[in-house]
Structures
1.
Amino acid sequence: MRLRIRFSKIGKIRFTSHRDTARIWERGLRRAGLPVAYSEGFTPRPRISFGLALPTGYESEAEYLDVELDGEAAGLSGLGIDGEAAGLSGLAGALTEATPAGITVQAAAGIDRAEPSLQETVTSCTWRIDVDGVDEGTAAASAARALDAGEILVTRERKGRTVTDDVRPQIVSLDATSTATGGVRLIAELGTKPRALRPAELLAGLCPSPRELRVRRLRQWISTGSKQREPLEAFTLPNPSPAADAARTTNAKDHRDDRPSGRQRGEPAPRGRFATATATTTAQVARQTGRARANLVGS
Amino acid sequence: MAARRHGPGRSAEFGGRAGSLGSVTDLWPRLEELLPRVAKPARYIGGEDGMQSPVHDARAVSWLLTYPDTYEIGLPNQGLQILYEILNERPDALAERSYAPWVDLEALLRTERLPLFSLESHRPASDFDVIAFNLSAELTYTNVLNCVDLAGVPVRSADRADGDPLVAAGGHCTYNPEPLADYLDFVVLGDGEEAVGEVTEVLARWKAAGKPVGGRLGALRELAGVAGVYVPALYDVAYDGPRIVAVEPRFPEAPARVEKRTVADLAHWPYPKNQLVPLTEVVHDRLNVEVFRGCTRGCRFCQAGMITRPVRERPADQVRTMVSDGLRRTGYDEVALTSLSTADFSGIEQVVADTVTDAGCGQVAVALPSLRVDAFTVGLAAQIQRARRTGLTFAPEAGTWRMRQVINKLISSEDLYGAVEAAFSQGWSRVKLYFLTGLPTETDQDTLGIAELARNCVELGSTHRRSASVTASVGGFVPKPFTPFQWFGQNTTVELRRKIGLLRGELRRTRGVRLKWHDPEATLAEGLASRGDRRLGPVIEYVWRRGGTFQEWSEHFDSGLWLEAMAACGLDPDWYTCRHRRVDEILPWDHLSAGLHKDFLWQDWRDALDEVGLEDCRWTPCYDCGACTGYGIEHVVASAVPPAGGSQGTGVSRSSGGPVPVALAAPRRPVGAGVS
Ligand code: SF4
């Protein structure tokens, strides 16, 4: 069966690469005792697939991975997860516990095999980009200009070649606002097809081009027609509105880095059957799981 | 790379450490602004599973355990990880870690006037009482100076003030710390498990007294009284021309000869208990469990084997526990059972079997690095064939049986062919062979024997696989202190280049053999530091001041700079490297002891020249080399007989009818091996 996991990556750990994060998850899943399926062949690899790579140095409130688990028919209950809310929340808690500080598992649910891969299915991402070198008025004006423009040409290196692309079609929305500390913040929804537009490339396309300070992926979206949904909703939804985000400091130490944990220094993390559910209350979980499941095609 | 060239007085530019930093203790807010601009920033963030967050208080002696190379190379270092835990368990000590920042971050740190920092609390290195380096390779010495300077601490011990951290070192290279004598405040010889505690006690008293003015020398003198601790500044070296005529202690506390420390029983030291699990890629990225320390196979070129005698095995049960607990805790799917020759571990068969069948560990690969050729059989190859993610490496070291007798690596060509055949027949298509060239008494016939072995291996392989190939990796031999070859004059770069040329010519038309070789110039630089005396210090400093850091890295190694430095200091590279030493010569490390009697080493050197091999003392009578007899300890070995298979250091086949040394493994549970 296939398990989809949603997690955030915030604080110092943002400096790990996509590859590093993949390795962190391979170990984390084993520590949590999940029966990850392995590929056949000379060098068996755990069957885990990740969505769109998050550039090194960027934070995220919406990362995903899909994991193939051994035990075709068993489903979640075969894993000892008691079907619904408490079980899934327990699993999320155990996975948070099994991964390093800075990674918090926000949701987990079984998904249908037929569900297309994250890479294929995600159509856009919402980014929060704190910038420097422009004031809010200038940023708002250049954002408006960008949205009005017929095309925005950006020159970038790709596979060793310099190519110039029109990135305008991939800018779904773009707003400039300010942070509580007086900095300038852009909220942008950027398309991923045919190729994901990165925040740094967006900034290069703006005029004047602001300097990137701190970037966080807020959402990944799947658009079908006029409907937009997330690959999996978080159990506890952080408020995505710019106003609420502005209340948080932007460049000071992010205290979520130091995720509270029951672990003492050096003490091994508990392993096994997700016995360490700590994340959410049962009531919350019931509500959230209901919501999460609405997005899924059963398990 | 112009920015990397610093003129003399490089340290002066960083003189105002306290001034620019004030009382800042957490550098993270400053560092995180720089990290988006450097390669692999995850090297600097800490946060590994197993990381400790010790509370700094005024009484505890704070150690900054530093590896003078990149995080990727340094993090897995077992010595530092063991001490890290032992120190943090003590109420009177705490330890954090640091690694040499790569050149991009170093440049930014210098422009921003930020110092070397710890990974745990991102605290300035100069906040610690001791900055302790692990010295595992001579070419990292310039990085040691660079790290001390980046810490804002004067590089020479004589220039340090009472409040400056003490700069210390441990690790294999400290058996000849003389090239760094003017830069290190103290050195610990041998196993550090017990010594760090005793050093901590001395320093805690000094710290409690408020590190009084002028008290630094007093503290160092007291440290010199701790067994295994060497304080270079307490000794005078007298020269007559180029030769050393005497090394004399200047104070009564300093022993005339500093003896190494040896932990008698590994069972008391089940460390690391919480191996650090890095967030980013490092070398040996797997669980590592040390199954024994020491090796008495007696390979004469091998310093590691000589200085770590006697053999001390960890009880098999403890190994099992460390493996299963470690796998569960870390989430690794690979464990290496480490030692200098893992097939010699008495319980190896059972331990591997238990690991691969332990359901609690999941699907696990077992790596057996340093597995002797004479233990690698078809049966074992069949078991480990699924672990092809790492290639197979064998280390015959020399091309002819005569040469292998000289170096006492007593494996026969048949042992090697058997191992290689086993590998190819079980599906490997490529094996790597390690050789040394420039060995004592080596003739061109011996050198060319390397080509012949490689060619024969490919031929054997091609009967099993059309694509069979062999990589022959040839390193230039550097004689090391406290080995029988410490008197040998190493080959000149010209000679090494000629020998490599011979091999290239010989193998030019051989299909399936790929030849790789080490830069002979780097072999020379390593030789300078390996057997150099205190006069090498200014050479190392000269190279460092001109930007010569990361000399272990071929893209940064600068041979011209080393030769320029030798010339500037009026020293002759050949005198230090290529000259045979006489029996009566006072060697720069004679006032230190790795436990080996000098006359034992000399006799072994004579035996080498006579092509006489010496069997392993684990299973034969003691030769009284001194490693046990000198300290009242002995081998801790569970098995009274050597493992079966191959010739086992006798040159005679002992494998007929004997059991496969390491059989086993359940289906789908690979066992990996690097073989030596
Ligand atoms: S003292 Fe004897 S038994 Fe011990 S290592 Fe030396 S030769 Fe071997």
2.
Amino acid sequence: MATKNESKNNWDFFNRIITDVDENWNIIQCISCGKCVGDCPASKISDFNIRKIVEKVLIGDESILKEEDIWYCFLCNKCSKICPKEGINIPLFILSLRNEAFKKGYNIPQLKKYVKMCKRFLENGTVMKESDLPTERIEEIKKICEFARIKYLHKASKKNIGIEE
Amino acid sequence: MEGYIKSVVLDTDEILQTYNDNPLDFFKDKKICLFKACLEYYYPGIRTCLKSMLEDFDLQVSTSLEQSCCSGTFLQRNLITRAQFAAINERNIVSINEIADILIVSCNGCYLSLLRGRKFLNSKDIREKTTKILKEFKKDILFSPKLKIVHILDFLHLIREQIGERLKYSLNGLKCAVHYGCHYLNLLLDKKDIHSFIAPKNKLEDILTILGGSIIEYQERDSCCGWGASQNVIHRDEALQITFNKLKSAESAGAELLVTNCPTCLYSLNKFRDDMKDLFGESPQIPAVHINELIGVLMEYECDKYCIERILPLIEELKI
Ligand code: SF4
Ligand code: SF4
């Protein structure tokens, strides 16, 4: 039987996910029917199982933040379309989990592959090599992204502190 | 549909009610802007062919010099916040609103970003943060912009009869498979409206039929192209399995051409054929094209070499 303490911890995790995006509250309606897993591309190529991930958040199991699984989601929305419940938005929910993982520093290998794209976006306003965006607009983008993770990644690429392109 | 989205989406059903005979008439006095998608860099024909067609119809077309990338890829990786993402997209809308009435978007990802940015604005917290960011550049959120946004498929479908009348060549029964892409097929916005949710999505088939193609059904029609929000950057070998299955499924159903409406999907469906050979021992041969490129070739517009490379051999073979 769960002690008072344990149940407090459980809801802590869930609450953080809702604080990030209030729509995430809807996962409480999940009836574990598993429809979301049937046609999920991430499940076809990895151990990713969205039904189990929802369940783990509901019981407060934070171990999923450390695992590679949450980084396999294609954000394709197939699951949300097929889910019998009205407001469950899996891509947003996954983004919140990734956000939590970021906060805990569990995501470094993922970042490495993004350095080049971040650099181009902040220096050109596009993820491609060339751009004709006026300098003022590029400055705006840099400003919008001030303090965002993308900026740190960009700085890391300049200082060459172990994050390769 | 919620406020900030509804006020920016072009209502094609309404246009049909007034301009049923020739929906192009609705666009005659409108300024049209084409949204620049990053992956058009590899497939320039997606924009040039569409531009040629619109000019052929005597419509006023431009692109915005101030438009930046939609930043969807960074939101998906949690590298920017929702407010920053909404600001980047709203800033593009503000710029384009100054020069155009209609914005045509030929990429599922960019379309989703523009709409998703607007959806985020329905939250008070995000709206306040976005307003604060935009204020720094003396810009403001437009609750009801003059600009209306339309997805390329909705636009082409609306004027498909008029496209049919202009064709120089027909596909002559060429067997075509379609790929819509997840962010067209699974838009959650549709779930709120039961009619659009259950309605079959077959605009691409309708357009291809007018171009003279015959439609091939295949098992993996609705599956992902394998891009999967950069899965083919992050977990490349695994994600390519999804791409491979899709291409093989279309091929084994007898399709000779795979037609899509998204440059990102197109990239994913085309670019990794050699890697597939290494990984799975064979490389699917079916060419993939964007619907804009296909229309461009059939209308005999000047196309880039990448476009020609993929489409022309088929056309020559058919002696169209
Ligand atoms: S959004 Fe993620 S969980 Fe849902 S079907 Fe796609 S890959 Fe699976
Ligand atoms: S389809 Fe919806 S209700 Fe069913 S298990 Fe998945 S998230 Fe839960």
